[in-house]
Amino acid sequence: MNNYRTIYEAVGGYDGIGRIVGLFYPKVQQHPLLGPLFPEDIIPVMEKQQLFLTQFFGGPTLYSDAYGHPMMRARHLPFPITPERAEAWLSCMREALAETGMPEELQDIVIERLSGPAHHFVNTTNERET
């Protein structure tokens, strides 16, 4: 990681983010806690996630340029995000990162960076509450 200025650069830029997203979302769709929260047509979600992660990890502001300020907590409020779902999301991301073959140190950095927001989006302790 010392040879890179940003996580974005370290994971391979826009294409690297795209690879992560491509490995991640099939896991999300198959996960019993996460799959029901996502639309059947996952492609638009994947496209937005690639733009968001590009910006989040220090790359160009593609998400903000296209959609305005991310306001990610507000965008997730309509969905029941439990602590278990936050951990499930991170688990799917860990699996996807491992499949990329990137160094474990970098995987750990990515997960650490995503853990705060994942838990920040928690808005209920019970699946039926919102």
Automatic annotation (TrEMBL):
Pfam families: Bac_globin
UniProt keywords, alphabetically: Heme, Iron, Metal-binding, Transport
UniProt superkingdom: Bacteria
InterPro entries in alphabetical order: GlbO/GLB3-like, Globin-like_sf, Globin/Proto, Hemoglobin_trunc
Keyword tRNA-binding in annotation: no
Family of this protein: Belongs to the truncated hemoglobin family. Group II subfamily.
Protein name: Globin
